[in-house]
Specification:
The protein has helices spanning 16-27, 52-64, 81-85, 116-125, 128-133, 137-153, 156-160, 164-176, and strands spanning 2-4, 33-35, 43-44, 70-73, 78-79, 91-93, 96-98, 103-106, 181-184, 191-193, 200-203, 212-215, 224-227. The chain is of the alpha/beta class. It is globular, with a radius of gyration of 17 Å. The structure holds manganese (II) ion.
């Protein structure tokens, strides 16, 4: 299984062509793929807010999920994807997903309890009232404005800070509930988090700027961090 985090594909970053190449490389392997969020920078899955980049990615997921598992968990730059596009994926979750093997996939932005503006945005945007409001065009415009102004006013330091004690507490709570492994992105660095014997917690590095992805071996275990083009085709 291949894990991909934080591609931040966007015209702003000028990495759309490289991202298309990544999708081609993935399609040439036989691996299941799980996208750990912040794949497209950014993605408001409402009418009028999706572009060719979003459509191309969705088509890829739709096609490849017929050949392999393609999972997606939303990052803090993605909104309403699970609600609007669930059928394009094998699984698609606004928060976290636990698979049949007891592996938890999560972006990671909600772990830092001190990041109040991020948690508030999530709570507001994903509320029932907003779900109703965004069915109409003025509602959708307003929701998109709120989301955009959040990112414009945000201190970049908060997003990058790695809250070690909180990550540990978070994953141990999941281990206590029977989860065997936790894989996340978001923090823009590769980390293996200390875990009890037989359990795994890993922070997958961002693909953006590194070309790196995680590859979980057949029998499970920690993901090997590799460049995607080094994964043999049809493996
Ligand atoms: Mn993120």
């Amino acid at each position: 299984m291949i894990l991909i985090a934080d591609c931040h594909a966007s015209p702003r970053r000028g990495n759309e062509a490289e991202f298309a190449q990544l999708l081609d490389q993935l399609a040439r392997t036989r691996h299941d793929v799980v996208f750990l969020g912040d794949i497209l920078d950014f993605w408001i899955a409402l009418p009028g807010y999706e572009k060719e980049l979003h459509r191309h990615f969705l088509q890829w997921c739709q096609r490849e999920s017929g050949r392999r598992q393609v999972g997606f968990v939303e990052g803090n730059h993605e909104f309403f994807v699970a609600r609007q596009h669930a059928t394009a994926f094998s699984f698609c979750a606004p928060d976290e997903h636990v698979d049949g093997a007891g592996r938890l996939f999560i972006h990671g932005d909600t772990i830092n309890r001190a990041d109040r503006s991020q948690r508030l945005l999530r709570a507001v945007v994903k509320s029932r009232l907003i779900c109703w409001g965004e069915q109409v065009v003025p509602g959708a415009t307003w929701v998109a404005k709120v989301i955009k102004s959040h990112f414009e006013s945000r201190r970049p330091a908060m997003a990058k800070y790695y809250p070690e004690a909180q990550v540990r507490a978070f994953v141990h709570a999941w281990f206590a509930r029977g989860v065997k492994a936790v894989y996340m992105g978001h923090f823009h660095e590769a980390r293996v988090v200390e875990a009890p014997p037989g359990r795994i917690c890993q922070v997958v590095p961002p693909w953006c700027g590194t070309d790196l992805v995680g590859v979980i071996p057949e029998g499970g275990g920690p993901a090997e961090i590799r460049r995607c083009q080094e994964i043999p085709a049809e493996s």
